[in-house]
């Protein structure tokens, strides 16, 4: 997939968000910050550039575009959300995220991955080939308790401010991608497309939350065409 994306839009730079990947090992911060996540993106790129983000990564990419509009050439948001607009709902979600972070620290990463992969949100992953599922699980298991918990406390949906009111000011070409089977994020995608000044929505048939894994050829065609032609 990365080779295909490179041929369409140039060699991509992969960014690990705080608490994940190369930032997971040895993480001793109880809470990571949005500022740290935005700095990780800023340090990785040569601007202006295109940004592609999935799920939490999409939410952080949207925050980066809101904070640094002149640096973002095009924006791709896969299964992403601007957050929760209702302060009460956001506070409730923050308590849930804190409880889950405590559980990760208490029970460990393998137990958390079992729980995470069994969520209805990822039910469509069962259609993936066994080797793809195994590879994805192995990547998740390389995270640490401290890294995942700190990321959830600082970058979870309950922790970050809502961007719904700021969407009309994010005036960069934006592609919103959602899987047909992921009704929650299809609805969020439609609402975002109505608020962003220059957005298009693509709903990928037969896919759930992880469109890039479940329908990689379709994902590459949609994203590659957008980044190539804008």
Walk me through the structure.
The chain is an alpha/beta fold and 230 residues long. It has a single domain, classed as Rossmann fold (3-Layer(aba) Sandwich), CATH 3.40.50.1820. Helix content is 50%, strand content 11%. It is built from 10 helices and 4 strands; from the N terminus they run ααβαβααααβαβαα. The protein has helices spanning 2-9, 34-44, 56-67, 87-107, 109-117, 130-141, 145-155, 183-195, 211-214, 216-229, and strands at residues 49-54, 72-78, 174-179, 199-204. The chain has a 4-stranded parallel beta sheet with strand order 1-2-3-4, with helices on both faces. Helix 8 links the parallel strand 3 (174-179) and strand 4 (199-204). The longest helix is centred in the middle third of the chain and has 21 residues, at 87-107. It is globular. The relative contact order is 0.18.
Overview features:
230 residues; alpha/beta; Rossmann fold; 4-stranded parallel sheet; 10 helices; 50% helix; 11% strand; globular
Please summarize what this structure is:
The chain is α/β, with parallel strands linked by helices and 230 residues long. It has helices at 2-9, 34-44, 56-67, 87-107, 109-117, 130-141, 145-155, 183-195, 211-214, 216-229, and strands at residues 49-54, 72-78, 174-179, 199-204.
| CATH topology term | Rossmann fold
Roughly how many Å apart are the termini?
19 Å
Q: Structural class, from helix and strand content?
A: alpha/beta
Name the helix and strand elements from N-terminus to C-terminus, one letter apiece: HHEHEHHHHEHEHH
Helical fraction: 40-55%
How does CATH name the architecture? 3-Layer(aba) Sandwich
DSSP E strands, number: 4
Number of helices, counting only DSSP H or I runs of 4 residues or more: 10
Biggest sheet architecture? 4 strands, parallel
Mean of all residue-level pLDDT scores: 91
**What's the shape?**
globular
By CATH reckoning, the class would read Alpha Beta
Radius of gyration: 17 Å
CATH superfamily: Alpha/Beta hydrolase fold, catalytic domain
Low-confidence stretches: none
What is the count of distinct domains?
1
